[in-house]
Please model this.
Amino acid sequence: MGPGREEALDRLAQGVDVLVVGGGITGAGVALDAASRGYRVGLVERADYASGTSSRSTRLVHGGIRYLPQGHLGLVREALRERRLLLRLAPHLVRPLGFVVPLYRGLKAPLGVRLPAVARPFAGWGVRFGLWLYDAFSRDPALRHRPLPLREVARLAPGLRTEGLRKAFLYFDAKTDEVRLTHAVLATARAFGAVTVNYAEVAGLLRSRGRVAGAGVVDRLTGRSLEVPARAVVNATGAWAERVAALAGAPPFRLQHSKGVHLVLRPGVVRASCAVVVPETDDGRLAFLVPWGDRFGLGTTDEPYAGDLEWPAPSEAEVRYLLDHASRYLDRPLRWEDVTAAYAGVRPLVARAEGSTASLSRDHLVVVSGGGLVTVTGGKLTTYRSMAADAVDEVVRRDGSRVGSRTHRIRLAGADGLEEAAAALADLEPDQREHLLGTYGSLAAEVVALARAEPELCGRLLEGFPHLKAEVAYACRHEQLVSLVDCLYLRTRLAVTDVEAADRAAEEVARLMARELGWGEGEVARQVDRYRATRERFLEPKLT
Model:
């Protein structure tokens, strides 16, 4: 059991004002918003933090350029406002990223917009208008789009196919590590007094005079059961929102799940210094090649999904779909062996109309169930802060208070003191400095201090990767890390970056965790076996 868990559970049992169910990015946002308004806040998560959709995205903080031709202008405007805020509130985790949009001769549906033959010669003008509108919504002069001369395309993305390339543009969005963003929000919420516990599952809701008055919670690590009294309960469980809402009666909404698959490509396979938009797919979806460290991520798909919510697996057909479509626009076609990892996530889409999930809006929904359970669902990573504010506004309204959201001006943990932290890391290798500052911000100095104080934590976790051994100890001591699977998939991200590398690191990581958590040899073996079983389940197509 992780350090401090028993104390945190004891504090929850004393009661809170607002109990948040769900420890993904939205639940973390709700906890921070409510705590910063002065509420006593508790948060419980049935698995590890950010273990669901919040760890399986394209890692973009973006307005959603594909939503413009669908007419979702309000969503784009809101997302670009949130992008602007996050660039300021979390500069260590949210950074501007350029996207090359190549337009080739013969495209029938550029950026997902199907054009009649007579309009295809004017596709460049249509894309230019959409990018101008995108800039107008973003209100950020530093991130305006511009046309790209073909010689500059060759400089920014030399791996793009040049045959038939008619026009190109460069526009801007932002990239992030969605798991680290979730942890930064959680750490900031805890600084405001919130109590957060992972592997704590809601087994039922408490009621008083017909109203929801808290929840019964089970600690999945020890089996301990407790009741958490609360004046308000907020359901922020993403893909599980409908199931949790059913604990209060028939849910007043319906979700339609969508599966999105991402691939991680071997270093050097994609030759580009920025992101690249795959300009056309057979079914009108949009895909991106996005730089992730020394590799590129390729995603995503968008298909209706009714399978396992906990461990959705990419299918062979979905992997081949992404490889085939991206290869059409690269000078070197992508091959199966270029993929070092693949993963899938489930989007919770509010089902307001029949049809494909690709056409469903990413707008969020705040709804009150019988007895007063507040549910926030739908939405997207970029808009988590506004989703959280809307959910807490509903709590405030029902509470009779008038305290407004403050999170638009609260900088996240690790955002301040970046220059001082960079100076403290000056003796490390460049890749390690970049990794640590981009993962922890100014808190990187605390990680390095552990490595310097304890010889067992010095050095790289794995040759060829920037992670320090001290990061495992830091996660155990400060972030409630309790499982090898979580360390490899969620904390180091090795298992969703390079499966072979994660396999090589598994035993070493388990022993580092054993040192922190008091595991014996039997538990180390069980943790390694559990990782290997998860790896087999998670990777339906055998990539290695």
Notes: The longest strand covers residues 339-350. The CA atoms of residues 172 and 255 lie 31 Å apart. Confidence is low (pLDDT under 50) at residues 353-361. The chain is about 35% helix and 20% strand.
